[in-house]
Write a structure and sequence with these properties.
The complex is a heterodimer of chains A (436) and B (78).
Chain A: H1 2-10, H2 12-31, H3 41-53, H4 60-65, H5 81-96, H6 98-105, H7 108-139, H8 156-183, H9 188-212, H10 214-236, E1 238-245, E2 247-250, E3 253-256, E4 259-265, H11 272-291, H12 297-307, H13 312-333, H14 336-345, E5 348-349, H15 357-387, H16 389-392, H17 406-435
Antiparallel strand pairs in A: 1-4, 1-5, 2-3
Chain B: H1 2-22, H2 47-77
The chains are: A mainly alpha (436), B mainly alpha (78).
């Protein structure tokens, strides 16, 4: 275990990559603490402290993804939430708009075009979200029950400056993520999410320790570790469908003749269903907040049934959404017919099943059966913290609870992915060393 | 002074957004976001890309300086 670390750090190339990634993460955390110009930092801090003990915020999810920077109204307060939302929208549009579907089929260049669209959309969304947050802050709704003026000088020029700076911060973060992907290790965007979630753990843990005492804290920690272990277990689980390749001669070379397997992960969709579901669930709350009037019947309906994470309507709705999106996302990303065609083209077949249409049917049958436990597991892990709200003091809603739910899923997934990439880099180096 | 810094912030922010958008799109969107497939970017960066990087760094530096400057102004005046 430690030897792997040592060899990772002694490889010059890998060391440079790891250091670059760490440097970017440090810069991100630094930027997340710089307050936006025109925002009164002391007032924000006072309001923030009032919020800590108070009721849950609408922005728990947004705040989770920005690592607590949102409620500080910092320069990077939008985090990479605009990018995530934009990617989700583009992903969904691939089903709806034929041109996007074409682009997706085009391969590398089409994918690059789609990514470019995602980036444009990110900027647009960043402007929207920044405007929304600044408007809420000026009206005093961002921190409910706090009478301090968060933005003392509410002239138009000042507000516009804040919005523009926040947008620039979001685009800067997007670029940082891309730089990490390109020159560092792992996927930049997901690493940045990872950082912002991990950054909240100490403060949340300390909060539990202070308010509830040592026994509850220990129980929560043990529980969190158990959840992490189970998440790793299911993330790694896969069904291996055997595939036999026929021998064939091309020129004087012999190809194929091997028996391999087609791995189908139990949780093929990753954490994406959870993110989709929670993003959709927080939309009505956000709309209700923006509409302002809290006394219409539907605002009260939303407050009691959808916002409150411990109400059974919320839990059921969330669960149903996660299961639906798990199936939906798997059906987008994995096309059994395409896979069967590919296998047929290269002379492969699943023993006992004819190539072509029967193979596709078999694959989709196995996939739909294997996705069910995956989807249920995702739903249960995501909903679990909602039952323990009493333990954690009920602050900030279930999503913020760092030892369960969305946060753990994302952290474990990103961590596993990054470690795998480091490992593959290491094996690459070792082989090179052998050959030389 | 405050007005100057604000105008500076507006200009650099807009420039920063434009410069970032000018960069070549990296990464494959959401599919590679959370434990997606391995992608390897073999293509090195071109000279144009390097110059773009340099310009972006310059603009970022200006942006950060003006943000910190306006923050200092606020805390000094109050």
């Amino acid at each position: 275990m430690l030897g792997a670390f040592r060899s990772a750090l002694t490889t010059p190339d890998l060391r440079r990559k790891i250091l670059f990634t760490l440097g970017m993460v440090v810069l991100y955390r630094l930027g997340a603490t710089i307050p936006s110009p025109g925002v009164s930092y002391p007032n924000v801090q006072k309001c923030f402290e009032q919020m800590q003990g108070g009721s849950q915020s609408v922005f728990s999810l947004l705040n989770l993804f920005s690592g607590g920077a949102l409620l500080q109204l910092s320069v990077l307060s939008l985090g990479i939430m605009p990018y995530i939302t934009a990617s989700i929208i583009i992903q969904l549009l691939q089903v709806v708009i034929p041109r996007f579907e074409q682009l997706k089929k085009e391969g590398q260049s089409g994918q690059a075009t789609l990514t470019q669209y995602t980036r444009y959309l990110t900027i647009a969304l960043a402007v929207l979200q920044a405007t929304g947050i600044v408007a809420l802050a000026v009206r005093g709704q961002l921190f409910q029950g706090c009478t301090m003026e968060v933005i003392p000088d509410s002239s138009i020029l000042n507000l516009v400056t804040i919005v523009v700076v926040m947008t620039a911060g979001a685009s800067l973060l997007m670029w940082m993520g891309e730089l990490i992907t390109e020159r560092g290790i792992g996927n930049g965007m997901s690493l940045l999410i990872f950082t912002s979630i991990a950054a909240r753990i100490p403060s949340q843990g300390g909060n539990i320790l202070n308010t509830k005492g040592g026994l509850v804290f220990t129980v929560v920690c043990v529980f969190g570790l158990a959840i992490i272990a189970s998440v790793v277990f299911i993330e790694q689980a896969q069904r291996r469908i055997p595939v036999q390749y026929a021998k064939r001669m091309i020129g004087r070379r012999m190809y194929g003749g091997t028996s391999t397997y087609l791995p189908l992960k139990v949780n093929q969709a990753g954490v994406i269903p959870v993110i989709f579901g929670s993003s959709l669930l927080y939309l009505p709350q956000l709309l209700g907040q923006l509409a302002g009037n809290q006394n219409t019947w539907w605002a009260r309906f939303i407050q009691t049934y959808i916002v409150s994470p411990s109400s059974w309507v919320h839990i059921l709705l969330y669960m149903a959404m996660i299961i639906f999106f798990a199936y939906f996302y798997v059906s987008i990303t994995f096309n059994p017919e395409e896979r069967a065609d590919e296998m047929k083209k290269f002379g492969g077949f699943i023993p006992g099943i004819r190539p072509g249409r029967p193979t596709a049917e078999y694959l989709s049958f196995v996939l739909s059966r294997i996705t069910l436990p995956g989807a249920l597991y995702l739903g249960i892990i995501a909903v679990l913290p909602n039952f323990f709200l009493g333990l954690t003091g009920g602050q900030g809603g279930g999503q913020q609870f760092p030892f369960g739910g969305t946060a753990v899923l994302i952290m474990v997934n990103v961590g596993l992915d990054t470690v795998k990439q480091v490992e593959s880099q290491l094996t690459q180096r070792n082989y090179e060393g052998f050959l030389r | 002074m405050t007005l100057f810094l604000q105008i500076m912030l507006l200009v650099t922010s807009v420039l920063l957004v434009l410069l970032v958008l000018l960069h070549r799109a990296k990464g494959g969107g959401l599919s590679s976001l959370f434990g997606g497939g391995m992608q390897s970017s073999l293509a090195g960066s071109s000279v144009a890309e390097k110059n773009l990087d340099r310009m972006t760094f310059f603009v970022i530096a200006l942006w950060v300086i003006s943000i910190i400057g306006s923050g200092l102004l606020v805390s000094l005046s109050s």
